[in-house]
Amino acid sequence: MAVQFNHLGHPLIVMSVIPMTIVGVILGLFLTQMELSVMSGMGIVMLIGIVLNNAILLIDRTNQLRSEGYSVEEALLEAGKNRIQPIFMTTLTTVGGMLPLALASGTSGNYQAPMATVIISGLLFATFITLLLIPAVYRLFTTSSLRFGWLKKKRKKKSSDVKSIPETVN
């Protein structure tokens, strides 16, 4: 991702959504009183792929707009407007596809329901978090006053720091 974005910090911005996604997963499993199983683990892997794709869409569009001359704030607002529909469509189609699995009963329904529950709860939670967290973290990473400014300490020159240059006689 660092090569795709031409920036080392942008993959970190994209991956900042993963912990929030896990919070949605835990909430969904807790509310439905299901256990973490192998199938729910597979659902987590699928979920992370979908959520990272949504974050990449948002970051990529923001970078395109910034290369066209938009400021950081304008680019984030415009990218949010442009990418909200594809992100919502991905969420709705995935949730719609997983709903029958989550509501299924019987032997196979009980086996696959945790996977569907993880995907549904995690994706619903992560979609809104993505639309709020990614722009905030992106702005934080790209603000020039915060970009490595805390690493450089300004040091006042003391008179003892200035060394005199010996004059040469011609």
Describe the model:
InterPro entries: Acrflvin-R (IPR001036). GO terms for molecular function: xenobiotic transmembrane transporter activity. By secondary structure, this protein is an all-alpha fold. It has a single domain, classed as Multidrug efflux transporter AcrB transmembrane fold (Up-down Bundle). It has helices spanning 2-5, 9-15, 18-32, 38-67, 72-103, 107-142. α3 (18-32) runs antiparallel to α6, α4 runs antiparallel to α5 (72-103) and α5 (72-103) runs antiparallel to α6. The longest helix has 36 residues, at 107-142.
SSE inventory with pairings:
Elements: H1 2-5, H2 9-15, H3 18-32, H4 38-67, H5 72-103, H6 107-142
Helix pairs in contact: 2-4, 2-6, 3-4, 3-6, 4-5, 4-6, 5-6
GO molecular function, one term: xenobiotic transmembrane transporter activity
Organism: Sporosarcina globispora (Bacillus globisporus)
Pfam family, one: ACR_tran
